[in-house]
Amino acid sequence: MAKSSKEWLRRHVTDHYVKQARKQGYRSRAAFKLLEIDEKESILEPGMTVIDLGAAPGGWSQVAARKVKPGGRVIAVDLVEMAPISGVTVVRGDFRQLAFKEKADIVLSDVSPNLSGIASVDQARLLELAGGALGLCRKVLKPGGVFVTKAFHGEAFDELRERLKAAFANVKVVKPSASRGESAETYVVARKLRAE
Fold first, then answer.
1. Is-contact 126 114, C-beta < 8 A?
2. Residues marked as catalytic
3. Is the pLDDT of residue 9 over 60?
């Protein structure tokens, strides 16, 4: 095993959020990112319809399903197979090629490209995915709805933020404490989709 892999594994198994995820029954430490975003931004409410893009292994879907009870619905979408989650409809496929029949109150996108380790390439790939998610929002997001998307700080970040500012009335950058400090990862919460 390479030195960097050993370091990652050691950091992962000793990580506070990984331990808490196991303890609280979440599938991943990412659940705490969404919990913190919701605590700060109040984005999830009972009765909402949520579309969760890049959902596997399901941490965000678990959080969303608990928060939108009673009467809410969560649709989890990913390219990879995902084990069932109570209260969640799992759809396997590329969200850019799927047709959604219902409108959503919130679209969550924790989608990540396969990372190359080359920052400019990874940012461009994530920008492309975020653009696809924004296109989906234009089709399925209810007026007044919310879009939460992952972003990487770097050269593509400003372009993504400007696209979101053009599409939404309110755009806010949030860095949850569950995102590793050394990570360029951050999230953008966008509200009130503008009419085209």
1. no
2. 150
3. no
Cβ atoms within 10 Å of 141's Cβ, excluding its own: 23
Total domain count, the chain: 1
Residue 68 falls within a domain, yes or no? yes
**3-class DSSP state of 101:** coil
Amino acid residing at 72: G
- Residue 6 is assigned to a structural domain of this protein: no
> Within a domain: residue 82?
yes
For tokens 């770097």, the residue is 154
122 in a structural domain: yes
Q: Residues, the chain, total? A: 196
Q: Is 30 exposed, middle or buried (0-12, 13-18, 19+ CB in 10 A)?
A: buried
Closest CA to 96 of 61, 64, 128, 125: 128
Q: Phi-psi category of 58—alpha, beta or left, where left has phi over 0 and alpha has psi -120 to 50? A: left
pLDDT of 31 above 50: yes
Q: What average pLDDT is seen over the chain?
A: 88
Question: Residue 162 belongs to a domain with what CATH number?
Answer: 3.40.50.150
Minimal CA–CA distance to 131: which of 151, 105, 103? 151
